[in-house]
Amino acid sequence: MGNTLTITGAHQKLKNGDITSEQLVQSCIDRIESVDNQLNAVVHKNFDQALARAKEIDAAGKFDHPLTGIPYLAKDVYCEQGVPTTACSNILRDKDYIPAFDSTTTKRLHSVGAISIGKTNTDEFTQGASTETSCYGVTKNPWDTTHVAGGSSGGSAAAVAADECLFALGTDTGGSIRQPAAFCGITGIRPTYGRTSRYGVMSMASSLDTIGPLCKSVEDMAIVLEAISGKDILDATTGESDVPHYTESLTGSIKGMKIGLPQEYFADGLDEEVHQSLKDSVEVLKSLGAEIIDVSLPHTEYATPCYYVICPSEVSSNMARYDGIRFGHHASSPDDLVDYYHTVRTEGFGDEVKRRIMIGTYALSAGYYDAYYRQALKIRTLIKQDFDEVYKTVDAVLSPVTPTAAFSIGAHEGDPVAMYLEDIFLDPQVMAGIPALSVPCGFTKAGLPLGLQIMGRQWEEATILNIAYAYEQATAWNEAKPSL
After folding, report:
1. Residue 72 backbone dihedrals phi, psi, to 5 degrees
2. 316 is catalytic
3. 156 is catalytic
4. Which stretches in the chain have pLDDT values below 50?
5. The domain 2-257+461-479 is classified under which CATH number: 3.30.390.30, 3.90.1300.10, 2.40.10.220, 3.40.190.10?
């Protein structure tokens, strides 16, 4: 079936005439219709337009770009002209919001012939670590449907792992690409902040949000990342750095590279199976010629508290636009304007969004700004300086993605702090603005996937992609498939 192919495998078959783009798209549609009732990964379907586009591409017969004719899914925060985009929130779902424009990322993908077939489930406005805050309900893990697929890009990760598409788009603010990628046994990358454009992607925390792909292999990830990266005049936060040819950097040779192992990531709470998989991965990298060096990132313990001051503060600002007048749910028969706002937001937002708005508004309020928000910004600088210092002696840094494998659905219900602590290994990179990726590195005894996190210097995605590629070539974890 075409849906089980990687991008590179499908591209070769398309060029050879062994398969058509229409057949490839149809195979993904058939897979979604067959298994998504078990997963709840896809929340909007764009099948008719996708098939029509595939027929156009087949008629042209030109498959010069690796993504031409390749079907993908986008997280339900990417605006696509004419396609419902709700951020999995009732505040937009009730209005059937349909964008009149494309995000820069989807426009870039469309320009090379990639075909969008629908939208994937996410935590409401990407606020969560399990997709349990989605107004459409939780996405389930393809490896064990009693467990979460992760979040907030859980729908994208589950869809890729279940072969519902050849790749998917996600967003990573506090680990929302890397964590679900690890939970579902696929690859995912958070690029350097500013490497990819956020234009047309609904914001959660503007100084932290990044967008990136979730894929079946490192080579696929390099292909997609190269296609979507680069300066965008519509997003002033995008950098001026030239976009490397990421696929050309995948030499598989890491002999002589120095890779740091930060001791702060081996704190209490790290599951023994996760720890063992990391030690096994270290031995693989050593066998490939890499030198493993113990390093220190002393401010690691402050990253998550810092994140949960800065992120809610920016959430408070970004969510202000959803007031029922400019955007969002409509309230009928309010007593006055204040009651209108109150009703719109009470009915439209879920508990986690409300919680973050309240925390952020408090942290930014007069009398508390200096005590919380300003202090968090100072700590953020210290965390970045930790990484800057470490990268003077190593080429990359290694760690687990999460302290445990995917947790059971409902495991953290009523305990938001426990949910926040799921991000403990994922927030330092966010504070520093550096690239980081997750690559499959094993399974628990219960059969749940585990992920290896590789972090690099700013703008050096090519380095960590090559390390991940070398590791992937020396193992077979990414070839495993869930039974559905």
Report:
1. -140, 165
2. no
3. no
4. none
5. 3.90.1300.10
